[in-house]
Amino acid sequence: MQTESSTLGLAGNTLATSGSLKTLEQFIIEREGEAPGSTGQFSRLLRDIALAAKVVERDVRKAGLVDIYGETGVVNVQDEEQKKLDVLAHEEFVRALRRGGEVCLIGSEEHAEAIPLQFDDCQGKYIVLFDPLDGSSNIDVNVSIGTIFSIYKVPDDHVGRVTVEDALQCGRKQVAAGYVVYGSSTINGVNGFTLDPSIGEFLLSHPNIRTPETGRLYSINEGNYNSWERGLKEFIKWMQEDAPEDDRPFTTRYIGSFVADFHRNLMKGGIYIYPANTRNPSGKLRLMYEANPMAFIVEQAGGAASTGNGPILDVEPEALHQRVPVYIGSPDLVERAKRFLNGETS
Ligand code: AFP
After folding, report:
1. pLDDT confidence tier of residue 40, bands split at 50, 70 and 90
2. Which pairs count as long-range contacts for 58-61, CB under 8 Å and 24+ apart, including other chains?
3. Is 307 in the pocket of ligand 1 (CB under 6 A)?
């Protein structure tokens, strides 16, 4: 496996039953076998993440039946109401990663500080940053939500004595990233796996995904229109113009779960934008466990991810929960958005 640079996409609930499909585990073992000197830690880490995803998927499915909808009454580090499922998902991922022993440091949207994991010999080589349940304001209304994760290596000279600062590595240093969509959608992430509930396995359903060079979908919360900068307003206007010769107007689609909006646009072509605005000068999305993993995935699928000024993957992180403006999707549209932000008009 190209373990040091692969991108993993896991899929939620869609049926994909075929005896000939490769399971996630088979896929990982095959790829890792191709990497010289691999110890199997990375494969085990992905297996742990897949296991946690299955448990969360089960919880999401039964949320209406047991008392796990609604708020906990606690406000998280982002100043957002924590949902019970946010907390459950956070705990499931922490439990799986702690048990596995391959990870020595975790950063989660639902926890103020990075969490060091203690092991007898503390030899875990990996750091995992994640948003356990992205789009949680959609939980109570059965709209797709998901998990986003990002994997880094502990710097060689810190194995066995990791510090919380080791979580703050540039996006380009990710060794893998992925997302899981829980809900009625299939996925690609470069390699997309779909959970077959009848056997409880993720099956390789979409190998080697490439995102379209351009697209006709744009996703942005237009309720914030008045707080946008001029260039962005002009770009949105351009996408709405009647110009059949280049397939405009575009279509707007906005779910409000980054993971689901990203997934749809990756497959169909388009752009997702969460810009800086006057209320949120750095945007809303978090660099380390929302923007970076998706930027890593989209670049490997032939797409682009920018802050509006430069590649997201080149942003030097300063804090675990820092926010960043996000323009992500088909390369042609991300490039065009940047031109509009720079004052051009087409
Ligand atoms: P929640 O997890 O609080 O629902 O936030 C989701 C999110 O971070 C991202 O998944 C959405 O794309 C974005 O916020 C939606 O934000 P707006 O409600 O401001 O459009």
Report:
1. confident
2. 59/85, 59/88, 59/89, 59/92, 60/85, 60/139, 60/145, 60/182, 60/183, 61/13, 61/182
3. no
Q: How far is the CA of 23 from the centre of ligand 1 (A)?
A: 32
Question: Which residue type sits at 69?
Answer: Y
Beta bridge partner(s), residue 176: 151
Return phi, psi of residue 281, to 5°.
-60, -20
CA 303/CA 146 separation, integer angstroms? 21
| Distance (Å) from CA 16 to ligand 1 centroid | 29
pLDDT at 285 over 90: yes
The 10s digit of each residue's pLDDT in 78-108 is 676 667 888 889 999 999 999 988 999 999 9
The mean pLDDT value for 299-315 works out to 96
| Contact criterion met (CB below 8 Å) for 301 and 189 | yes
Alpha-carbon span 271 to 262, nearest angstrom: 8
pTM: 0.83
**Distance in angstroms (rounded) separating the CA atoms of residues 308 and 328:** 10
pLDDT level of residue 184 (50, 70, 90 thresholds): very low
Q: Which two tokens stand for residue 67?
A: 């008392």
**134 touches ligand 1 (CB under 6 Å):** yes
Tokens 């297996």: give the residue: 47
- Tokens of residue 70, six digits: 């609604």
For residue 205, the Cα-to-chain-centroid distance in whole angstroms is 19
CA distance 87 to 67: 13
| Nearest to 11, CA basis, from 259, 220, 214 | 259
Tens-place pLDDT, residues 242-262: 999 989 999 999 999 999 999
Per-residue CA distances from 307 to 195, 198, 283, 288 (Å): 33, 41, 9, 13
> Among the atoms of ligand 1, which is closest to the Cα of residue 259?
10
